[in-house]
Amino acid sequence: MDLQEVGVLLGTNMGNRYQNLTKARAFLEEEWGAPLRVSAIYETAAWGGVSVASYLNQLLVFGSDGAAHNLLAFCLEVEARLGRSRELRWGDRVMDIDILFYGQQQVQQPELVIPHPRMAERAFVLQPLVEVAAAWQHPVLKLSAAALLAQCSDTLEVKIWEGEEAV
């Protein structure tokens, strides 16, 4: 398989959020090498669930020729290393790593759907995606990331995070 671009979104709203992002990125880089592109860090109110604290999110684009399921397994391992427990859907989390896209691949399995099935509904996903890959074409919806953001009905504010958190 040729090298494909893989977009992963990191998200955290528990503990030292900046440190959580930094650690997750370091773990991913150890396994996959340096990212090809990295978005700014964005802060957004919790979306669609019972989370209370706001989230920090960052999108990383890596090059990979590995199997999508192996990428997912490693993402889940990184989440676990950072203390993620999966008790409540859309609840607070120390780390969430979502595979948004893998080139133009489409995967429809119970444990993995690529492209991410709800990415077009979420401004906190689309804003950093547009920053690093505005022309990326959704393989199902046949729209660019920029077009998806322009028509997204999500009204939660997505702003570039400029703060620091105590270590």
CATH superfamily: 7,8-Dihydro-6-hydroxymethylpterin-pyrophosphokinase HPPK
Low-pLDDT runs: none
- How far apart are the first and last residues' alpha carbons, in Å? 41 Å
What kind of sheet is the major sheet? 6 strands, antiparallel
CATH architecture: 2-Layer Sandwich
DSSP strand content: 15-25%
Overall number of strands: 8
Count up the helices: 4
Give the number of domains: 1
Elements, N to C (H/E):
EHEEEHEEEHHE
Q: What keyword list fits this structure?
A:
single chain, 167 residues, alpha+beta, Alpha-Beta Plaits, 6-stranded antiparallel β-sheet, 4 helices, 8 strands
Can you characterise this structure?
The protein has helices at residues 17-32, 68-81, 123-133, 145-151, and strands at 4-12, 37-38, 42-44, 55-64, 96-102, 107-109, 112-114, 158-160. It is an alpha+beta fold. α3 packs antiparallel against α4 (145-151). The chain is globular and about 40 Å long. The N and C termini lie far apart (41 Å).
Give the structure's gist in a few sentences.
It contains four helices and eight strands. With 167 residues, it is an alpha+beta fold.
How is the secondary structure organized here?
Blueprint: E1 4-12, H1 17-32, E2 37-38, E3 42-44, E4 55-64, H2 68-81, E5 96-102, E6 107-109, E7 112-114, H3 123-133, H4 145-151, E8 158-160
Antiparallel strand pairs: 1-4, 1-5, 2-4, 3-4, 3-8, 6-7
Helix pairs in contact: 3-4
